[in-house]
Amino acid sequence: MALTLKQQLSTPAGILQFIVKHNTIIIFLLLVIFSALISDVFFTSVNLSNLLKQVSGIGIISIGMLLVILTGGIDLSVGSMVALLAVTFAILVNIFVLPVAILITLVIGFALGSISGYLVAYQKMAPFVATLALMTIARGLGFIYSKGSPITFKTPGGEFMSNFANNSTLGIPNIAIVFFIIVIMAIVMLRYNVFGRLIIAIGSNEHASRLSGIKVNKYKFLVYAISGALAATAAIIVASRTNLGSPNMGMAWELDAIAAVVIGGASLNGGKGTAINTLMGVLILGLIGNILNLLNVPSYPQQVVKGAIIIFAVLLQRFETK
Amino acid sequence: MQNLEQEYRVEMTGISKSFGVVSVLENVNLKVKPGEIHALLGENGAGKSTLVKILNGVHQKDSGKITLNGVEINPKNTHDGQVLGISVVYQELSLVNDLSVAENIYLHKLGASKFWMNWKQLTNDAQELIDSLGFKINASAKVRSLSIVQKQVVEIAKALSEDTKVLVLDEPTTVFDPTDTQKLFDNLFKLKAKGVSIIYISHHLDEIFKIADSVTVLRDGVDTGSMDVADTDTDGVIRLMIGRELKDLYPVRQNKIGEVPVFEVKNLTARDTIVHDVAFSVRPGEVLGVAGLGGSGRTEMAKLIFGAHKKKSGTMLLDGKEIKTNTPVCAVKHKIGFVSEDRKEEGVFLPLSIRRNISVTDFSPISDKYGFIKVDNEYKKVLELIEKLNIKTPSSEIVVNNLSGGNQQKVALAKWLSIDSKVIFIDEPTRGVDVGAKIEIYNLINAVAQKGVGVVVISSDMPEIMGIADRILVMHKGTFYGELSKEEFSEENILRYSIGKPLKQQQLN
């Protein structure tokens, strides 16, 4: 630790250690360089802002997923929640003024997440099972309330949101700004707040946490509730981008979110992971999709490449512990 | 037995081993005769386990020579070791929880040759083996359902399931109470009579002098001597182990003990465990010892008070005021601390840094009202505790998993000292801790009491509890059976109360 960067990079072993330690950032940078070399279009502002718009929704739920995974849990419901809450928001924005619609959507997201949180924390249900059930319920409710078809925004409030979601400020897409603000909040909470300290402690040893007088149940409950509220945020954003709420939105997003968190070096056993690395995980997944699109690779081979990258990233992390 | 003239069954000469650049063993010799119990001693990290693992093939030596009955051997893996008749009972249990006792004992046979197993035969054989050891365990029970003591017995039975010529036991009695330990010793004497060579690793020096014929001491990977037990004593062995003279293992107790109890328990009964009608008080500055057999409810009693188990009835007074501790959260709020006997599972956060471990019990002095941590205050507090407890580490950011057992234990203690606890329950304070760290922990307990804290120490180690406690309460079947004042301290008295018998002089009166 006392070594300076220069000293560390002077030996082959040191270089390897450096690569392994910062593997997500290095993979990210390599992908950026590779993309820039291989396609002229990549470094255009249109493409980059498209890329950011595409990843923002999944990025926001990935942060929620990170919090849940840090406690040693998992939240499979977020993808379906995005669908249900997008539909909910579309209905609400056509009835109420915009701030009210946003607020109610967030509250419903928080409440739905609270159901998972209650089942996991207080009823001791396995997170996989509890959130699997909620995943099905949310998707079903989405179809019921929308009667199976998309609901379009019809009010000035909806129009405002649609403009907001498709425009940029200082060259950065507005929805990416929302995503980045959430990432920064997560970084600060995990690093400098008792909340982050405690959820990491719970994930690394739940027994010891209880016997240290930590309110384990409260924090486990909270992470699922926050994950639900973040799913609501993502839902508002994706609905606004397309000017409608559809029950088919967010299909399998929970899996992409888990992938992003894992590529970011988090452990599914809990206790290990950072928000900045999850951001990298999100960008890496987005980049792969983006560059393969630019190369006109069809979507099925894209999935194969995505899977391969996940395996590669996690294999690299294995060296870290040694 | 092809070479009866051989004086030694096992001869390891000039063994050296390094992992990467770290040299673990240097030119170590170990010689064990047939029918001998040979103690292998040394502090944690001295190289005992590595030496044993070289003998049975887990690790390969870099140089040196191993002979068994005079024939050179080079076990490449544990299977080689087993074939040669070398069985090792490790400190960490290595049983498969979801298999039965019998299946675990004969695990090595399950994968071999025959397609069909005779399960009935297997279970019967296992039952016979366990019965012959004198323990009551059902051979068809799942290992998951066993207590930790029973698991250890199964582990030993597993080692004896083959034609064992050399049996290595690595800290076999850590989880045993005195009666179980005695049973184990009886079994070892039987094996010894049959000519089995036993290598016995333990931190309990009194055990060594009870059972061993000879002893080899390691220090920092070098053997500092081998001798017959008859030719040495505890001080001599400790000197070889830690390389210096050892004045006193236990600190001098000269505390001012307060008159008014800081903590009092009346008629406490548990809802789900055997603990019932527990009553005691502890005064500020006092070290109260709690003894008793394994399974007598000592740990459960502490966990009950701490709120980790549910109470049925009873009252508790802290500083004369009644308190409720329905969860550990309440207990911590009332400044009651609890150091678990199971350090790795319940005591420390192995993957987290020392700093994160110590801060976890109470953030209020080091954070603002929104929960944001004042990092400077945190460092200051943590570094103070690291220094005060003499935790040996280059920095507060070292992950606890990388510390020795003794230093991990100090981290577990530091957590409770950081909140200025009024009462601390310490369950098995020195389990799996080497002599040097033991002394430090005893001094620490003493120092904590000196500050006016009521300290309750639960321990199965009788010399330890007699050495540090001001008085001892003995548990029997879930409640306190008797109290011993300092003048009455003796292993016999503790044992008599433990098994529910009055003291001798009381019988006379």
Automatic annotation (TrEMBL), chain A:
UniProt-annotated location(s): Cell membrane
This protein's record includes keyword Phosphoprotein: no
Keyword Hydrolase: no
Membrane topology: Multi-pass membrane protein
Domain of life: Bacteria
Ranges annotated as spanning the membrane: 25-43, 55-74, 80-113, 170-190, 221-239, 275-294
Principal location listed in the UniProt entry: membrane
Keywords, sorted A to Z: Cell inner membrane, Cell membrane, Membrane, Transmembrane, Transmembrane helix, Transport
Pfam families in UniProt: BPD_transp_2
Protein's name according to its UniProt entry: ABC transporter permease
Species assigned in the record: Mariniflexile gromovii
TrEMBL record, chain B:
Lineage per the UniProt record: Bacteria, Pseudomonadati, Bacteroidota, Flavobacteriia, Flavobacteriales
Membrane recorded as keyword: yes
SMART domains the UniProt entry points to: AAA
Name of the protein in its database record: Sugar ABC transporter ATP-binding protein
InterPro entries xrefs: AAA+_ATPase (IPR003593), ABC_carbohydrate_import_ATPase (IPR050107), ABC_transporter-like_ATP-bd (IPR003439), ABC_transporter-like_CS (IPR017871), P-loop_NTPase (IPR027417)
Gene3D superfamilies: P-loop containing nucleotide triphosphate hydrolases (3.40.50.300)
Keywords, sorted A to Z: ATP-binding, Cell membrane, Membrane, Nucleotide-binding, Repeat, Sugar transport, Translocase, Transport
Chain ranges of the ABC transporter domain: 10-245, 252-502
PANTHER family on file: CARBOHYDRATE TRANSPORT ATP-BINDING PROTEIN MG119-RELATED, D-ALLOSE IMPORT ATP-BINDING PROTEIN ALSA-RELATED
UniProt GO MF annotations: ATP binding
One Pfam short name: ABC_tran
Species for this entry: Mariniflexile gromovii
